[in-house]
Amino acid sequence: MNDATRRPVRASIAPSAVIEDVKPQVDGGRFAVKRALGEEIVVTAAAFAHGHEKVACALRYRGPDEVGWSRIPMESLGNDRWRARFTVDRMGAWQYGVTCWIDSLASWREGYERRVDVDDMRIAAKVGAELIATSAAHATAPEREQLTEWARALREESDPVALRTLALDDTLLEIARAHAPRTGAAQSVNFPAVVDRERARFGTWYELFPRSLGKDGAHGTFADVIERLDAIRAMGFDVVYLPPIHPIGRAKRKGRNNAPAAQSGDVGSPWGIGAREGGHTAIHPELGTLAQFRDLVEAAKARGMEIAMDVAFQVSPEHPWVQEHPAWFRKRPDGTVQFAENPPKKYEDIYPIDFATTEWKALWQALREVVEYWRSQGVAIFRVDNPHTKPFAFWEWLIADIRREHPEVIFLSEAFTRPRVMHRLAKLGFTQSYTYFTWRTTKAEIEEYFTELSQDDSREYFRPNCWPNTPDILPYHLHNAGLPMFRVRLVLAATLAANYGIYGPAYELGENRPYSPKSEEYLASEKYELKRWDGDGAASLAPWIAKVNAIRHAHAALQSDWSLAFHPTDNDQIVCYSKRAGADCILVAVNLDPLRAQSGWVTLDLAALGLEDHANFRVDDLLSGESYPWRGERNFVMLDPARAPAHVFAVGRQRQP
Amino acid sequence: MNDATRRPVRASIAPSAVIEDVKPQVDGGRFAVKRALGEEIVVTAAAFAHGHEKVACALRYRGPDEVGWSRIPMESLGNDRWRARFTVDRMGAWQYGVTCWIDSLASWREGYERRVDVDDMRIAAKVGAELIATSAAHATAPEREQLTEWARALREESDPVALRTLALDDTLLEIARAHAPRTGAAQSVNFPAVVDRERARFGTWYELFPRSLGKDGAHGTFADVIERLDAIRAMGFDVVYLPPIHPIGRAKRKGRNNAPAAQSGDVGSPWGIGAREGGHTAIHPELGTLAQFRDLVEAAKARGMEIAMDVAFQVSPEHPWVQEHPAWFRKRPDGTVQFAENPPKKYEDIYPIDFATTEWKALWQALREVVEYWRSQGVAIFRVDNPHTKPFAFWEWLIADIRREHPEVIFLSEAFTRPRVMHRLAKLGFTQSYTYFTWRTTKAEIEEYFTELSQDDSREYFRPNCWPNTPDILPYHLHNAGLPMFRVRLVLAATLAANYGIYGPAYELGENRPYSPKSEEYLASEKYELKRWDGDGAASLAPWIAKVNAIRHAHAALQSDWSLAFHPTDNDQIVCYSKRAGADCILVAVNLDPLRAQSGWVTLDLAALGLEDHANFRVDDLLSGESYPWRGERNFVMLDPARAPAHVFAVGRQRQP
Q1: Residue A130 falls in the annotated catalytic set
Q2: How far is B460 from chain A, CA to nearest CA, in Å?
C-alpha cells in the first residue's frame, strides 16, 4: 500500500440529508427578500438523502427581535421538492430557513406496508420498536408512555394480522416521528426578509410643487398645499410627494428654462439646496415654517394621506456645510470646490458631496441626521434623488440604520440608470424603485417589461413604482400629445402597477410642450419657475383619474403586482392583462393607439382568471358601466380612444350555461 | 437629537465596486465545474460601481498546486457585463475568480475627451497629473520616469491643442492604468474547477462479460478478452468495461433468470462479490490471475484502449469482511446480518455495507484501498454501481482523495434514480453519469432532454454517458425489436452524446427477448449465466457500428457535447440536430420510425451551422457516401429504415452560387 492508502480518513459522515435551491432568496442570502404586512413567504427547497431513505423537512422562521424560531412541517411536492408558507405580520427584519433530516420512522413504515413474509414482519416490528423506543426517550408523559407501550407491543405481538394493524397505527406513528431525533440533519443558512407596511405594496402618488399653489401670483405655501389636499384625495391619491422644501441657493442660481444665469425674481431649482437660511434641515422661508410643515403632515394624515419628502444629497455653493465642513467637498487643483459636471456640461450651482472624504464618518452621520430629523417631524416616506451617484455602502448602512427602529419608513429610489445598478440599489434596501415604464410604449415592450417586473426572481427585492411623467421627464410620446395619450399612459400605470404616480397638475392638465423636440425636459419647466395651473379648466383629466383610482381602491386585485398575467390579442395596438386577489379578478384591455379605434380578438388564459374551459361569464367595465356576456377563451373587444382608452373589467362569477 | 442619531457610524466605505453573477459556478462555489484538458473556461460576471465611475475587471486563475495567480483583463460586453477566458492544460483542481476595481484613469480620460472649456481642460490636466503621479509611485524604471514626465508635462503645458494631445496619449494611459492602485476593489470568491483527461470528454464504451467469451463451453478468461480486443477496437470502441471480476459467493447464489436458488453449475451474478477465494481485491479464479488481468490492461493500452472496472460496494454473505469486520454490517434484531431488500423483494445473496457504522473510518479506509489497489494495477476508469445507495459524503471524500494524486482517474456514476440525486452525485465529483437517454424515445423527449444535458447550467458538472442498453435494462422499445430499431438507438447515442456505450455482444446481435413483457430484464440474462454469442452471424450490426464510430473518431464535432443544436422538422418521426467544433460541422437527421420510410422538410438554423442566409452548400452523408447540394434553410430529407436510420452529414463549405 502506498502513502495514499495510509492517509487517515479526513471526512465526516454527517449530515446525510441535503438541502438545495431554497427559494426565495437573493444572492444566497446576502440580501433580503421584501414583503409587505400580511403577505406570505412561500418557501420551496429541494431536499433529499441518498438511497431510499425518506426525509422530512421543516421551515423555521422568526420575526423582528424574536430569539426563538417558529417551525412548521414542509409539504412534499414530489421529485424531492418541498414547500411551506408563513405570513409576515410585523414590520422589520425576519429570517427563515429550512431543516431536513432522515425520517427513519417513515422509511420503516413505508417498507412495512409492503411486507408479506411473516418472519420478516416480526423482525421488522422489532426494528421499528427500537426506533420508537428512541423517540420515547425524547418524549415526556403521557406520550413517553404511549410510545413505550407501542414499542413493547410491537416486540411481543406474534399474530401477523394483529401485528400488521399495530405497526400501521398512524396516530402513534405521528407521535413517534414528532419525538424522533433528527439524525443526519442538514440546515440551510438563515435567509433574511424585510417586511414593510402595506403602503409599500400599494400606493398612489401625486408629485407637486407647493410654490406653484399660491394665489394671485404669490409664492405657494404649505397652507396652500393643505387647501389642495381634498382635491388631490378626491382624485384618489394617497401619497403627496414634494420636491425639496429647503432654502434655495442664490449664487449661480439657474434661470427659467435652465438658463445659465437667473434673472431677478427667478425662484431657482428646489434641488439647489442650501442658502444663508440653512441647509437640509431648514425650510425655504417662502413655503412656511416648520410648524406649518407639521400642520401639513398632520392634515394629510387626517385624510388618510401621507407627505413624501425628497432626499437630495447635494448642495448649493451657499449651503452651510460648504463653510462648516470644507473636507466634505472635493477641491479642484486651483483650490475651488469641484462642482457637478458631465463634460462638456457644467452644473456650477451644485456641489456634489465627497462620500469618500477622510471625514466620511462625520459626513455620513450628518446625512443620517437629516433623514432622522424629518422622520421625527412625521415624514415616513423619502423619495431619494439620484441614489446611484452615491456609494452603495452608504445606502445599505443608512436605510438599515433608520429602519432598525423605524421599519415604517419607506425609501423610493429615483435611479434611472443601468439595470444592474437599479437592481443593486433595490437589493441594498430601497423599498421601491422608479422603473423604465416611462419609456415602455409598445405592446411587446409592455408585456416583456411587466413580465420581468412581476414574474422574474428580481421581484423578490425590486418593487416597482411606475410614473408616466416626472418634472424631469416629458417622454417623447407625450410631446404635444392629446389627452387620449395621457389617458392611455395613466391607465397602464394604474392597472399594471400597484404603485404608481404622476407629476401634477401637469399631468391631469395634459401639459405636453417639450423644451425642444430632442429634449425630455418640459418647456418652461416648473423646476425653474412658479407655474399657474388652471385646475378648473374643462380639459382636466382629474375626474377620469378619480374614477381609475377609485377602481384601484375598490379592487384588491390591483393592489399588488405578482398576479399579473398577459393574454394574447390579435391586434398589436391592444394589450390585455389580468390581476387577481382571491375572488377579485380584474381584466384590462388597453388600446395603445390614442388616435384610432382598434378592435381585435383576445385569447384569454381562463385558468389565470380562475375560470374553467368554455366558461360563460360576465365582464363589467368599471369605467363605462357597461357589461358584456363572454364565453370561453376567444372574445372580441373594440376600443375607441374618443370614448375610453381601455376596458377595466371586473370578471364575474361563472354562470351556469 | 435622539439616541439613533448619536449612534456611532458602523459602516465601511470600501469596496466601492460590485461583482455579481459570476459564471460558471455550481451552488456558489460549493462544487467544482468540470472541464477536460484543452477546453476553455469562459468566465462572465456583472461588475460595476456607483455613479459614472468606470471600472476595470480582471480574471484570476491558477492550476493544480500553483500558489500564484495568472491574471488577465476582462473584456466589457456592455450593460455592466464582463468576460474573459482561459484554457485548462493540466489535470486536477483549478480555481478562478474575478476582481473589479475603480478605474479612475479611464473615467478621467473619458471625461477629458468631452471637454471644450480651456480652463477646465487645464484644471482637468492637473487632476489627471495627480492620478498619474500615483501610478508612477507604484511603477519601476523606466515606466516610473515615463509617468513622472507625463504628469509634469500635463501640469505645465498651457497650450490647449498641445494639452489635449498630451492628455489623450493612449500608450501612456495604458502604462498608468497598469500601475494604478486598485481602489475600491471587490473580489469574488475563488471558484473551483476540476480538469479531467480527454477521455472524460469523449469515449466509446463496450461492456462485456468476460466469462461468456470462453471456447467450447469453457468459462471465459482474461486471455479470451485479450483475443477479442482487436474485434472490439475494429468496431471503434476504446473503453472496455467489465462487470465485477471478483470471486462470486456460493451461499444463496441466484440461479438462471434470477431464480431464488442456483442449480448445480449455475455461475451466479458477478455482483454477488466475495467468497472463500477473497473479496474486492481478489479475482474470480476462473477468469484468471492478477498477472493475467494486468496483461489484459496492458493489451488494451497497447491498442489505445482502456479497461474500465466495476466498483460495487456490497458483499455476498461469504465475503471475508463479513467475518473480519462484523461491525460493518447491520444486524437484524434476531442477530442475523441484514440482507438487501426492497419489500416484498428480498436479496438474501447480498449484504449492504453499513456506511454509518461506528467503525466507519476503518470501513471507508478499506473501500478506498479497494479503488487504490486496482488503480495501482493500471485501472483508471471505474464504473460505480448504485452510488446513490451510499452516503453522499463518502463519494465526495473518496473521489477527491483518489484524484488528489491521480487526477487521471475517471468515475462513472451508475445511478438511475431521481434527477436531484443524480445531479448531486455529479456535483460531488463523479466524472460522468448515466442518463435517462435509455428511455427517451420520442422526438419531443429527445429534444428536451438533450437540450437540458447540453445547454442547462447543469452541464457544468453533469457529464452524460448515454447507453441504449445495459445488462440490467432491455428498454421496452427494444423488446422483440428488429435490428433497424437497434440502429436508431445507437446512432442517436453515438451522435447526440460524446460519451456513449453499449452492452455487447447483446446489442450488435440485436438481443431483444425480455424476461417478461412488463420487465426490462433480459430473458436468460447474462448476469446469471454464461452466454454463447454468435459473433459471426450474418445479422450482426458490428460492421455498421464500426462505421458510425469511425465517423465519431474522424469528426471533432462529435467529440464534445455543448455545441448541440436542434433544427425543426415538419415530421415528428424525424429529429434533426447538429454539432460543431471549429470548421468541423456534422448535421444528423434520424428517422425514429424503424418500420416505415419517413420524409419531411428540415428548417435549418444556418447560423448554428456557420452558414450565411440563403447559402449554397453541400452535405456529404458519411454513412451512405452520397452527397446533396442544399440551399438555404429549407431542405428535404427522406429516410428508409431498410437502408439507413439516419443521414450523418458533414456540412461542406459554402460554395459560390
Answers
A1: no
A2: 16
pLDDT at B183: 86
pLDDT at A655 over 60: no
Phi, psi of B322 (to 5 degrees): -65, -40
The grid cell for A305 is: 394621506
Q: Are B333 and A419 within 8 A, CB to CB?
A: no
Between the alpha carbon of residue A595 and those of residues A324, A444, A592, A598, A624, the distances in Å are 57, 19, 9, 9, 19
User: Hey, what amino acid is at A151?
Assistant: A
Q: Nearest 5°: phi and psi at B530? A: -75, 140
User: Chains A, B: CB contacts under 8 A, how many?
Assistant: 177
Give the pLDDT of residue A535: 66
Torsion angles phi and psi, residue A346, rounded to 5: -125, 135
The model's pLDDT over A139-168, given as tens digits with 9 standing for 90+, comes to 999 999 999 999 999 999 999 999 999 999
Q: Which residues pair with B187 in a beta bridge?
A: B99
HEC readout, A460-483:
HCCCEEECCCECCECCHHHCCCCH
Specify whether the CB–CB gap between B506 and B209 falls below 8 A.
Answer: no
pLDDT at A1 over 60: no
| Centroid of chain to Cα A268 | 34
Query: Which of B13, B115, B156, B390 best probes binding to A when mutated, by most A CB atoms within 10 angstroms?
Result: B13
Instruction: Give the per-residue pLDDT at B346.
Output: 87
Q: What is the pLDDT of residue A657?
A: 46
- Residue B657: the pLDDT is 47
Q: Are A126 and A155 in contact (CB under 8 A)?
A: yes
Express each pLDDT in A207-266 by its tens digit: 999 999 999 889 999 999 999 999 999 999 999 999 999 999 998 999 999 999 999 999
Q: In the prediction, which pLDDT does B1 show?
A: 40
Prior bond of B73 cis (ω within 30°): no
SS3 readout for A65-79: CCCCCEEEECEEEEC
Report helix, strand or coil for A132.
helix
Task: Name the catalytic one among A224, A238, A310, A414.
Answer: A414
3 state DSSP class of B150 = helix
User: Does A365 contact chain B (CB < 8 Å)?
Assistant: yes
The three-class DSSP label of residue B603 is strand
**Per-residue confidence band for B539, with pLDDT thresholds at 50, 70 and 90:** confident
Does B492 score more than 70 pLDDT?
A: yes
Give B340's Cβ-side CA count (13 Å radius).
19
Peptide bond into B24 cis (omega under 30): yes
Of B123, B104, B102, B110, which is closest to residue A337 (Cα–Cα)?
Answer: B123
pLDDT at B516 over 50: yes
Element (H, E) at A572: none
Where residue A4 falls among pLDDT bands split at 50, 70, 90?
A: very low
Give A 124-183 residues with CB within 8 A of chain B.
Answer: 126-127, 130
Mutation target for B interface from A420, A422, A428, A456: give the one with most B CBs within 10 A: A420
Pairing of strands B186-187, B92-102: antiparallel
Residue B275's Cα: distance from chain center in Å? 36
d(CA B9, CA B560): 55
Q: Which amino acid is at B572?
A: D
Contacts within 8 Å (CB) and 24+ apart, B320-327: B320/B274, B320/B278, B320/B279, B321/B274, B321/B279, B321/B366, B322/B274, B322/B351, B325/B359, B325/B362, B325/B363, B325/B366, B327/B354, B327/B357, B327/B358, B327/B359
End-to-end Cα, chain B, rounded Å: 82
Residue of B nearest to A420 (CA): B80
Residue B531 class from Cβ within 10 Å (0-12 exposed, 13-18 middle, 19+ buried)? middle
Task: Count other C-beta atoms under 10 Å from residue A30's C-beta.
Answer: 12
